[in-house]
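Contributing new records

If you add data, match the layout below exactly. Sequence lines come first and carry their own label; structure lines follow with theirs. Keep one chain per record. Anything else will be rejected by the validation script.
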Amino acid sequence: MELTEIEAFVKIAECGNFTRAAALLHISQPAISRRIELLERDLEAPLFERLHGGARMTAGGEAFLPFAQRILAAVRDSVAAVRDLKSGDHGSLSLAIVGTLASTTLLHRLTSFRVDYPGVRMALRTANSNEVSRLVRTGEAQLGLRYFEDVSPGLESALVARERLVIVSAQGSAIVSSDARKAIDLAEVPWVSFPVGTGSSGEPFAREMDRYLAGMGLADADRIEIDSLTAQKRMIEADFGIGMLLESAVSEEVRLGTLRLLDIEGFEGSAPVYLVRRTGGYESGAIRTLIARLTG
């Protein structure tokens, strides 16, 4: 069993497609197919069911995936450990972060860390919350910052912040009065939200919104479900409904005057931000210092 075969398996599992996975690994489709064939021969079990236009993991593939991810993560850990021996107190770290968090106070903590430790090489990449967890789980990122706790096996989460949620409508909305101040004023207005039951990164926000609406006596409010933050904002701007969104996600639209904040009595919403790390993963001195900076 070769590491390249395991890498090919994990990439296909992530993409659901042999051709796309081969392109990401910069190899040909026959080459990636051969790697999977050899891996299946070693395991004496099929890992994928070939479908028209894609591939679906078999029960054997699903059973093998978490172990394959841990193998790749362990290899990346070993490389990082050796490199850190050479770099002494400097070292490097990789951090995956949800894009909207780049406009919050957490960014100031990251900036101050870079100023205080200029010798540390910090690699940043943005992703949605589910992708942040995946990157940490596979060792492609050593730490992650995401919304809501991930209780998946193999990950540890620590609450580091809460980000404010705000209620917004179109500027000059015809469906909600500009002087709306009480929850009852929103009783007949539809809410634009993420869908529930899809397993997407937006689903925790939808459940959190449901919880807040129930507390406001609006549990039966109509929903317009859209699994795209950008599309949600455009629908709200077009006055199809109102929304409960992260303050950082709508700051630009509020500044431009296409969305306005609704100051509803008694509403104080927020979404938790968690630092995720892999259980048992290698942590250099630089990583431990950043963890302390973010959680302190």
